[in-house]
Amino acid sequence: MEEEELEKRKKKWYLDVENTPCARDALVHGIAGSLVIGALYFMKSNVVRRSCDFAVGGFALTSLISWELCRVNRAKERAEIKSTVTILNKVTEMRRKELEEKKRTSDAPSNS
């Protein structure tokens, strides 16, 4: 078990992109953003080199924004799930106590 964890840690982060949350979406959005920004600038100026510069910048900017938005959304979802689990645990505990109390009252001998 420890050897598997050690192997995972040895693996470089840039080789493990498929298991990184939000990476795929950020890369796809970055590629689409670079194509759009580069094409729009090329249509405006007809300068290929400058259009490529804008495309690279568009990729970096779009990927970064997409990555951060995804991380924020995941953090919100995680917080919501944690609060929901806490509420469910409290409700379960209350229900268990109610059932125990009901069982105790029904098992108690009646004084008739």
Automatic annotation (TrEMBL):
Domain of life of the organism encoding this protein: Eukaryota
Coiled coil (residue ranges): none
Cell compartments where the protein resides: Mitochondrion inner membrane
This protein's UniProt keywords: Membrane, Mitochondrion, Mitochondrion inner membrane, Transmembrane, Transmembrane helix
Keyword Lyase assigned: no
Keyword Mitochondrion attached: yes
Gene Ontology BP term (one): mitochondrial respiratory chain complex IV assembly
Record's GO cellular component terms: mitochondrial inner membrane
Homology family: Belongs to the COX20 family.
This protein's name: Cytochrome c oxidase assembly protein COX20, mitochondrial
Organism: Geodia barretti
